[in-house]
Design goal:
By secondary structure, the chain is mainly beta. It has 2 domains: about 130 residues, Rossmann fold (3-Layer(aba) Sandwich); about 150 residues, Tumour Suppressor Smad4. Helices cover about 10% and strands about 35% of the residues. The protein contains 4 helices and 19 strands. The strands form 3 sheets. Strands 1, 2, 3, 4, 5, 6, 7, 9, 10, 15 and 18 form an 11-stranded mixed sheet that branches. Strand 9 and strand 10 form a beta hairpin.
Length: about 300
């Protein structure tokens, strides 16, 4: 089992740090003020320690901007973080700063993955650079697409959820569903017609999954939450909804699909699409690169303790 969370208690100030700040830019004053706070704090710190800081709006950042960074600071909300996290490798720590917290503004962002905010940024960035932050190692979903021509294409890794469906949403998704037996589900091999399949990490179930599948009150064993994922066939006809893992499942086994759709796609965290055609085989599992997410006052799992059966 992967290590869920490691708390690093001690460490000295980094001699030199290469930092990338990715920010949400939508011309709202609240986000501009948050960016000013981050800039001023980092400029002040540069007088005390050797840090190099680059800034990029979310819409303009590219994969190469993340190479050889010691820290990525994401300023915005959860959508900003999930939109760029697929470009961050598993060795680079990510610090989320909620630029518009819900408190004291109800119109703000909940910021589940955002461990800091403008009011705490000065204290938190020092802890991050001193290696005194809480390091949460988060698993991510990924799909491997085996095309009929023999190529292998990997989707972006998904921190929350991954959708597999017909690109024409008004047409049913047709596929063969296969999964090996695990400790909770029998081996399955069946043909389905649904509106597509949704996968979720343990943490991502609050983003979309629980709006699709009624699992309210369900808790999950603590020892399984970083190597199991959730699956559901969306809008599967009621007569086909069974408790054998074909409708929904909590599993650690890869789920495999053989497409019978003219054209389908995999969408990671609601962002980039990876397309496939009829005859392609798609395997979905938690084998994506992990994400090293920093928090400061609690672990990320403390926020969803009511989902965990300790």
């Amino acid at each position: 089992m992967r290590c869920l969370t490691t708390v690093i208690q001690e460490g000295g100030l980094t001699l030199s740090s290469n930092i990338l700040v990715v920010y949400k830019k939508n011309f709202e004053d609240v986000h501009d003020k948050a960016l000013d706070e981050v800039r001023n704090t980092l400029e002040s710190l540069s007088k005390e320690m050797s840090i190099v800081v680059d800034y990029s709006a979310r819409e303009k950042v590219s994969r190469t901007d993340f190479i050889e960074r010691d820290l990525v600071v994401v300023l915005g909300g959860d959508g900003t973080l999930t939109s760029i996290a697929h470009s961050v490798d598993e060795n680079t720590p990510v610090m989320g700063v909620n630029s518009h917290p819900r408190e004291p503004d109800n119109d703000g962002s909940y910021g589940f993955y955002m461990g800091s905010d403008p009011n705490n940024f000065k204290e938190d960035i020092k802890r991050a650079l001193s290696e005194e932050a809480i390091v949460n190692i988060l698993p991510r979903l990924q799909a491997e697409i085996f095309t009929t021509s023999g190529n292998i294409i990997r989707s972006d890794p998904a921190l929350n959820d991954l959708l597999l469906a017909n690109t024409h949403q008004y047409q049913p998704s047709k596929y063969r569903l296969q999964r090996k037996e695990d400790e909770k589900n029998l081996e399955i091999n069946c043909v389905q017609y649904s509106s597509g399949c949704l996968f979720s990490t343990f943490l991502g179930q609050g983003a979309w999954y629980r709006h699709i599948n009624n699992i309210e009150g369900t808790t999950f064993p603590e020892q399984e939450i970083d190597d199991h994922y959730l699956f559901v066939s969306r809008d599967l006809p009621r007569n086909d909804r069974r408790d054998d893992g074909t409708y929904w499942a909590w599993t650690n086994q890869p789920t495999t699909f053989t497409s019978d759709m003219h054209r389908g796609y995999v969408v990671a965290d609601g962002w980039d699409e990876t397309h496939f055609t009829r005859g392609a085989t798609i395997s979905v599992s938690l084998n994506g690169p992990t994400l090293k997410l920093l928090t400061f006052r609690s672990t990320i799992y403390d926020r969803v303790a009511y989902w965990i059966d300790a």
